[in-house]
Amino acid sequence: MIKVSVAVFLLALGYFQYTRIFTPEKEVAFHHYEACQKFAVELPILDITRFQNKLLAVGNDINQYFSDFSNASFGKIYYLEEVDSGNLTVKELEIKDFPDGVGFYPFGMYLLKPNLLYVVNNAMAKGGSRLEVFNISSTATWIGHSKFDKVGIFGDLVMENEKEGYFSQYSSVQIPSDRNYSFMDFLLGFAKDFLQIKDSYVYHCKIGETTECTALNETKSNSVTGITKSKFGDYYAAHSSIDENYIAHYRKNSESSTLELKSKLGVRDRCERLEWDEPTQRVYGTATPWYGDLLFFSKLVPSGAVEMRSWEHKPGNVYRRLFMQKDLLRGGSCSARHKNFVALGSYLEKAVLVCPIVGPRT
User: Fold this and answer.
1) Per mean pLDDT, which range of 15-19, 66-70, 196-200 is the poorest?
2) Cβ(286)–Cβ(271) under 8 Å?
3) Each residue of 241-257: pLDDT tens digit?
4) Which residues contact 277 (CB under 8 A, 6 or more apart)?
5) What is d(CA 260, CA 165) in angstroms, rounded to the nearest whole number?
6) Phi first, then psi: what are they for 199, rounded to 5°?
7) In the prediction, which pLDDT does 316 show?
8) Are the C-beta atoms of 335 and 275 separated by less than 8 Å?
9) Terminal C-alpha separation, the chain
10) How far apart are the C-alpha atoms of 109 and 113, rounded to whole Å?
11) Which helix (H) or strand (E) holds 356?
């Protein structure tokens, strides 16, 4: 009788979660996409940031990475120039002095100083999980790295200085360091999402020859899909699950380096790769209007860009979709603002979408 009851419960739970994953949100309004323009890139873009008078982006052969890692292309670093001209120019930076025998598969990046770029590199059997450091100019010159050990899949990051940083754990499933990503790894990650196991965190890492990373208890959730820091010392992290999506506001404890939760902002989107924009003093991110992981296998993966400002200091609207598109670009991965335009990268397509911002622009 107990076994039958457990089986019935699991079937009911399975059906309930199945309908929530595969049933699109019925109230999605597709808007402000009519003037968007799509431009080709050689590899899918996984992160974008503002850099001087242009945007800086990293590319990863992400589909091949998970399906046939041995043949996945070496990652790219791009300049996205003339974003506001209606004729985007994509310029690939030559990567110099990168160590032989190590793969480059960038998942996220952070510009610490005007030219010092930190990149999370999940290189699996071609180097393990690493943090690469580049000097950015007309080329990307590799100047060093640190290695991570058993930290799952890191995506987004914020570097405090050259010796410490905060990293969002996209998944607790370990990136193998001695083999390719397997179908069983995928099933494990899916099971954790399906059962809503909350075992992902923001990690504080001390960077050195041996990197020491500590999970921060107040950041625990099913998946931490993005993190950024404002110039005022506010940290914003995107948390996502089938049950809820929210942006958490943290402040750093200066003595312990932990992040202390100040408030949560519930949002209707699964947000990815948060980006603080200094000129507007707002946070930008990519939004999927329903649970997106499994929909990546379908032809319909709508996405858009969102804008946020601190909700604790000013009243009024603090979160808005800048645009939402249905089928111009599948599987939005990251976004960043440049003047009155926003660029949207994709996990699934070798393209970037550039859209004008409609409405309030300051």
Assistant:
1) 15-19
2) yes
3) 877 899 999 999 989 99
4) 50, 283, 284, 336, 337
5) 15
6) -135, 25
7) 52
8) yes
9) 63
10) 12
11) strand 351-356
